[in-house]
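Can anyone check this?
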Amino acid sequence: QVQLVESGGGLVQAGDSLRLSCAASGRAFSTAAMGWFRQTPGKEREAVAAITSAGARTYYADSVQGRFIISRDNAKNAMYLQMNSLKPEDTALYYCTAIMYPTRAPIGSWGQGTQVTVSS
């Protein structure tokens, strides 16, 4: 099973950018569709971006379309989320996991997440 470690979060101001990283272990990473999810207290975890195993297709939630870019490097067992023009409403704990594509249903384990806080 793929194990995942998220990193790159932090405290930034509105309009700033951050790049999240998801480091994966195991050979299965290159064959797995992957997704970035986020969660805030009292709300369900939501998918914000997804990418197929070879990176040919991507999905973005309406709330991040045009601002976030998902990518992956299978040679490095890594996935990334470039977040631009950040807004206070992007504040959340961000997770990566394996998913079913295109349904985006999570099928993998969850890491500890990385906190993104955007101040206004």
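Reply from J.R.: I decoded it. The longest strand covers residues 18-25.
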